[in-house]
Amino acid sequence: MTRPAQRQSANSVMPGKATTVELEREGMVVSVFPQNDTRMIPASAVLFDAITERRMTLPRSPELAQHAAGAIAKHSRRGWRIDKPNSRVHIDGVIALCMAVDRHANQPAPAQVVGWV
After folding, report:
1. 100 lies in which domain range?
2. Calculated CA dihedral for residues 35, 31, 10, 57, nearest 10 degrees
3. Does residue 79 share a domain with residue 27?
4. Residue 48 has what pLDDT?
5. Which residues contact 35 (CB under 8 A, 6 or more apart)?
6. Which one, of 90, 112, 99, 107, lies nearest residue 42 by Cα?
């Protein structure tokens, strides 16, 4: 029996390669997703568009709802991104959702064989 493919995004504060290797051994495809402006500004826009265009809704989870309520838009000269107002507010669930939605929206195209080598 084959297991369906699973994906996991690793953020910039991930404990290290040991965790990545463990997840890969379990059959998950792991991709690095640093939480910097270069990645989070476009990812935040993808999540915003998915929600405002009603392509997705948050599941009924009190914890995720609390994370979403605590999230703010942090503006910079490059654009805005999802962030937290201070270190006491937890928004990890929304950040994980943001990474997952961005990863889904920006899947690499499958490789195609063009001809014989």
Report:
1. 35-105
2. 80
3. no
4. 95
5. 11, 12, 13, 95
6. 99
117 in any annotated domain: no
One-character DSSP codes across 26-86: TTEEEEEE--SHHHHHHHHHHHHHHHHTTS----S-HHHHHHHHH-EEEEETTEEEEE-SS
Total domains present in the chain? 2
- Burial of 14 from C-beta contacts in 10 A (0-12 / 13-18 / 19+): middle
| Phi, psi of 69, rounded to the nearest 5 degrees | -65, -30
pLDDT tens string 22-65: 888 898 888 888 999 999 999 999 999 999 999 988 888 999 99
Query: In whole angstroms, what is the distance from residue 80 CA to residue 99 CA?
Result: 15
What is this structure's pTM?
A: 0.72
Q: Is there a single domain that holds both residue 23 and residue 41? A: no
